[in-house]
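Hey, I was hoping to borrow your eyes for a little while. No rush at all, and the record is pasted right below.
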Amino acid sequence: MDALLVTALPNVRYLSGFTGSNAAILLTPREATLFTDPRYTIQSAQECDCRVTITKNHLLPAVESAISRRKLKRIGIERDRLTFQAYDFLREKLPLGVEITPITAAVETLRMVKSPEEITRIRRSVNTNSKAFTAALTRLRPGMSENDLAAELDFQMRRHGAEGSAFETIVASGARAALPHARPTRNRIEPDQLLLIDMGATQDGYASDMTRTVFVGSAKSEWKRRYRAVLEAQLAAIAAIRAGVAAGKPDREARRVLAAHGLDKEFTHSTGHGLGLEIHEPPRIGKKETTILQAGMAITVEPGIYLKDKGGIRIEDTVLVTESGCEILTPTTKDLTVF
């Protein structure tokens, strides 16, 4: 390639430090040029040490002009990120003979292994998230709505230093806990119910992710048994993580444990995913994944079971892959908790 055009904002931030909402980077072997609009004239100068081009109109005409002026012939684009409209514009406007080549996950592959600074930011985000969880649950009362608890969790994240939530906070009570990605509703959290909470903070640009399933009132014996089975599966997956292991192994270990308890068919999603500048990043921790784990990867471990019309249990930590195993970053207890 003569150049790579980067338009995904998390990738722009990773390469340049720029945190604005409208930007692109044109990378050549010799230099990087950030394109943005006048709203970010001051901010881009403060955050970036590369060349910055401010354009009053759309960014792509300025990008096209730079490509033409420098007589670049082979331009890589982000296959999974650039819109078709943008691709169509470039194909139409660039000079004859310029080749546009889609490239998959060029920057995302670099982002999988975190730098020490990134790991520090993820630790901070994880700790903020756990503090918010603890603070919010002091307000939990039977009769409180899922919406109210979700709002309290989001408030506590900001109160403890986050920029906001990394994704829409999940609060699901009773039978609704069988929905892995349930949205909070006005449903009341009743006594003697399961309560599944999946939450993550964004702090210093980096995401965290944690799920805890607690019981409001007494927990029935069958749910205690299921909870222990999910926790055993999660711990087995964590024990399988280390540098040099394929990303599919932790998933297979979690499923092996759940199968021994007769619950493997109730586990309907992958065991985890990478996180960082985005809440979902490579690598995926799934049964058939062949990506080799490397020290410095930050991933989630989150097996769960979901029983229609009854409820569900998921336990999730953020962990850091190391040469000899992994470090569990999430400090919140996984002991069966009853409120």
Observations:
- The mean pLDDT is 97.
- The first helix runs from residue 9 to 16.
- The longest strand covers residues 193-199.
- The chain is about 30% helix and 25% strand.
